[in-house]
Amino acid sequence: VMHDVGKIGVRYDMLNKQVAEGNVPFLKQFFVDQGAVFDKAITTFPTVSSPGYISFATGLTAGNSGIFFLEWFDRTKKKPVGYLTAGGADRVNTDLLNQKLLRGVLETEFVSPTTLFEQLKPAPTASLYTPFRKGASIAIPKKFPIKALFSGLIAKDGFALNKMAMEDLIKLFEKPLGEIPRYSLVALYGTDYYGHKKGPHS
User: Fold this and answer.
1) What is the mean pLDDT of residues 166-195?
2) Nearest residue to 173 (alpha-carbon basis) of 35, 3, 56
3) Beta strands in the chain (DSSP E)
4) How many CB atoms are located within 10 Å of the residue 141 CB?
């Protein structure tokens, strides 16, 4: 069972400090003590959520997935497309392509990149609070996360975003063993929210 829990905007040194000081016991128990920690890992570039999630789930870098940043300019429609907007959130799934395959002179037909969600079928998989869900059998929330937006933008409670995602993940783990996702991609936006509001040391 593998779970990518993306603490968006967290610096490695700050996360290690929080773990060492006992400020994140759930994270320490389930992901440090009982999981795997990669201390020599390097994130994809640019270091933003949409390309990062694509890399986790497909193995493709931003330069090869077609998902280069959080937004891009659609020249045919002459308007920007934002992957973290209500109108553009699902585009991160449909815009995905494999540039390496397109440049391959020996390839005779186009095959869309396969995600871990798709490779693990028929086993259950989950995408929680991230717009990238191509092939996931469970996607939470099913639509654009209005409740999460309210928490961040109106109530100014960034960690409520994390709480919602973790509560939904825990519900999935309370299911019978055969229904627990083999792979989960979970976004925790609280640190990103506070990092933008108060700086990287907040």
Assistant:
1) 86
2) 3
3) 2-7, 71-74, 79-82, 125-128, 138-140, 183-188
4) 14
Which residues lie closer than 8 Å to 93 by C-beta, 6 or more apart?
131, 132, 133, 134
- Interatomic CA distance for residues 61 and 124, integer angstroms: 25
Residue among 91, 88, 15, 7 nearest 49 (CA): 7
Residues 62-100 have pLDDT tens digits of 888 888 888 888 888 898 888 877 777 788 888 887 666
Torsion, CA 171, CA 176, CA 177, CA 182, rounded to 10: -40
Q: How far from 113 is each of 53, 88, 116, CA to CA, in Å?
A: 14, 20, 10
Distance, CA of 96 to CA of 92 (rounded, Å): 6
Task: State the Cα–Cα distance between residues 67 and 74, nearest whole angstrom.
Answer: 13
* pTM: predicted TM-score of the whole model, two decimal places: 0.77
